[in-house]
Write the structure tokens for this entry.
Amino acid sequence: MFKNVETIIDAVNSKLLPMIEAGDTKWLKCWSVSQFKNLQGYKYTGFNVLWLALQSFKSPIYGTFIQWSNQGFKIKKGASSINLLLVSDNIKEIINEDGTKETKNFKFIKTFNVFNAEQVEGNIDSLNHLLDTNVVSKVTALNNCNQYVKNTKAVINHGSNSAYYSPTNDYISIPDIKNFNESKTSSATENYYSTLFHELGHWSGHASRLNRKISNQFASAEYAFEELIAELSSAYLCSQLNVSKEPRTDHAQYLANWAKCIRANKDTILKASGMASRVLKYLNSLQASKSNEDKQVA
């Protein structure tokens, strides 16, 4: 295997393995990003899909330097390319020790570089025909939830490949609503709003709000504790706003991933629950109607 191929695989593993080892299943997400395509409309497959899903670009369109140039685009100065893998099937005839001939199939892997549509200069709108605009959302819009979130005045950017809260820039990033799917235990609607509420839980911890320590090292005890708070907050909000009639299995499965944190201190879940109750009370206080503000959460 070529060294640059190993470099790409190592780069993917360096992002995925800490998530797996920490028990964080957010990368096994309940949404699917738009299908990644090149400028000719061909869809990337296999390992390349996984690698592109870990990039921060919103556009699903990629192309090589030559492909962009041939269509009149210019790569932005300082833009860094993304290495992808090209797997070719080959046939080789070998001669065995007894003199017989045998045909064997083998794969040849090499790399090539691409740039995202956000890294080029030119009329990007001319590429709209490559976008999956006919995707029908499986999420049922819940007006009470949408209004609740709107009343918080949180900055929410839809269209990313992942869901996260940026404490540095104070905004929530989440995939497009049409990209959320049903899971074994939850509907697409439940998955969308529970994900949004989870990130809203993190948002509440900003220094200008409840002032929690939310910028922690991944997989640390502090990080795990903040994840517990956010997921419990999501569960409480799902219950209060009638997204789920009962606690969702997905919440329990997510919280189970932080069992190590809970086992390390038997009071962890109780403390996290208390903090999540504060989150709920704070978010309720931002609503136009204060009728829910005094609701108690066990």
Q: What stands out?
A: Confidence is low (pLDDT under 50) at residues 19-28, 290-298. The longest helix spans residues 3-22.
